[in-house]
Amino acid sequence: MEKTISYGNYDRAINDAIGKLKINKDRKGKADIIMLLEEAYYKANARDLENINFLKKDNNPESYLRIFDAYVSLDNRQEAIKPLLPLYVKGKEVNFNFNDYSDELITYRNSASLQLYNNAQALLNSNNKFDVRAAYNQLRDIEDMNPNYKDTRELMAVAHQRGTDFVLVDMINDSGKIIPERLENDLLNFSSYGINNFWLQFHSVPDDKVTYNFNMKVNLRDINISPEQIKERQIIKEKQISDGKMDLIENGKVVKDSLGNAIKIDRMKTVRCEYYEFTQFKASQITGNVEYYNLSNNQLVDTFPITSEFVFEHIYATSRGDRRALETNLVPFLERRAIPFPTEEQMIFDTGEDLKMQLKQIINSYSTAVAGI
Q1: Which of 125, 284, 303, 342 fits as disulfide partner to 346, beta carbons 3.0 to 4.6 Å?
Q2: Cα(347)–Cα(312) distance, integer angstroms
Q3: How many folded domains does the chain comprise?
């Protein structure tokens, strides 16, 4: 804590001290913490009051919010310490001077609110979206310190609407194949992407009440699906395995251990297995691009290629002979059987899962590069 104070982090030192004094504040050894709390408290107050006096002399209306925040800090600081009182060091009560800042808080809350309100109104007269967003931020500051001041909430709604970029999304299928309805719905369900943010909204269904800023066209040019294939391979394996025990014979006699018992060894046997493996294979690919248009001038802003692939592969096997000859990694395939190949519709839908991830990446790039979010 001493180091924290020496660095000028007074409020952090105060919070650390309060945390340590909440339990057993009168216990021996807490005196040093109390003295550090007192030191940090008075130094923090002195710094805030010095800043307030300077800002008042400057007499700049833009400083009203900073003055208000400084009074909030002064008030919060003493309110945090009050529950700990009284505090004693060597039997003597430590004196913390507290002040009533309510008049100053009310005065500068109202002054700051009016200044921010006037600034926000001026910014709302701009046709620049970034100015409108700045207006929203100032109105939000008013709402935080002075809830429901004048028509702040109504103006916040106006600023949010005007400051938001609205993007209308169209999916255009030029592939010659039918896109499953559930895939189109899934691709255009932007709530599942987690990409809409406070200043950017994507709509797949036009809203007559919204003026759209951009149009995103998802163009699907080609959809290719391979024929259904079954690849076969045959493996013949032989292995020596243990097939019980037998007596160890040397020079025609049974070998015995020190206790007179016959020594047993593994009886080895060669086993053979013919392994037939079948791989069901089918692949699909969707290619196209995404185009962004600025609707204020109908100019193409950017274009991104998209390519998505999906591979269906299923392996199963049969065998003839003794399975013990096979490696362990082959055995699980013997428990499988052939399954139906996915339909063309299912293949296209599964390919769309990767396409959805690509669209999300493209939209995130757009949010930063184009909309400035």
Answers
A1: 342
A2: 8
A3: 3
